[in-house]
Amino acid sequence: MLVVPGVHRVPGFTNSYLIESGDGTLVLVDCGFRGRVDKIVQHITALGHTLADVTDILLTHHHLDHTGGLPELSRRTDATVHAHAADAPVIRGQAPRPGADRSTWTGRLAGTRIPPPARPAHVHAELTDGQTLPPAGGIRVIHTPGHTMGHCSFLLERDGGLLLAGDAALHLGKRVVPPIPLALNENLRAVRDSFDRLGRLPFRVAAFGTGAPIAREDQPCWRATPD
Ligand SMILES: [Zn+2]
How far apart are CA 101 and CA 92, in angstroms? Predict the structure, then answer.
């Protein structure tokens, strides 16, 4: 499912994305639940690629619906796995999952219902805010903490800018909103700050962990004039 030229959505409860780098290789953004691996592999094959073409796996954050398929996909590729330093220990199984923000009743309720972590997996490279990864003409790392404290969004700078927002923003119905409906946010104040920061970035199209991509001009919640 084409998002913009060279970027494909693997749709599901949680979306993953495949970015064609332009040199015959691919970047995978998020791995979905463990049961999503076959679907991702089918999309790679349909694009005329093999798993060997995946050079990098970018993770927006440590939640199970983004990392469940990581152990298998990491094992079946030679890809470098990237995640922010604040989430990498959770993904590696070296630190427990942080709880939800307990300052709200939904957070206190969710705190007792945290699902189990994904099986541990390697993270080879830790992301930092503002760094630009080389594939696909440059992928800028935007640290957008709050949903998890290591949450990162990604800005593909070619073709006017594609924002891959992960769970730092949701597309529900016709509206783009902060992920406040999700109970497992680790810091609600940071969630709001990160959502506002996304609106100041230079992008033409935005894509999400939840919901369909949108053109920026169709979403009045984000200012028309980026920084
Ligand atoms: Zn999440």
Answer: 22
Reference 10, options 51, 34, 48, 38; nearest CA is: 38
Residue type, 139: I
- Burial class of 47 by CB neighbour count within 10 A (0 to 12, 13 to 18, 19+): middle
* pLDDT (mean) for 156-173: 93
Q: How many angstroms does the Cα of residue 83 sit away from the middle of ligand 1?
A: 14
Contacts of the segment 154-157: beta carbons below 8 A, 24+ positions apart: 154/29, 154/58, 154/60, 155/201, 155/202, 155/203, 156/7, 156/19, 157/132
Please tell me the distance between residue 24's alpha carbon and the centre of ligand 1 in angstroms.
30
Assigned superfamily of 2-218: Ribonuclease Z/Hydroxyacylglutathione hydrolase-like (3.60.15.10)
CA distances from 115 to 31, 39, 63, 88, 135 (A): 17, 23, 9, 18, 33
CA of 227 to the centre of ligand 1 (A): 27
pLDDT > 70: what percent of the chain? 89
How far is the centre of ligand 1, averaged over its atoms, from the C-alpha of 14 (Å)? 9
The pLDDT of residue 160: 87
Cβ atoms of 36 and 69 closer than 8 Å: yes
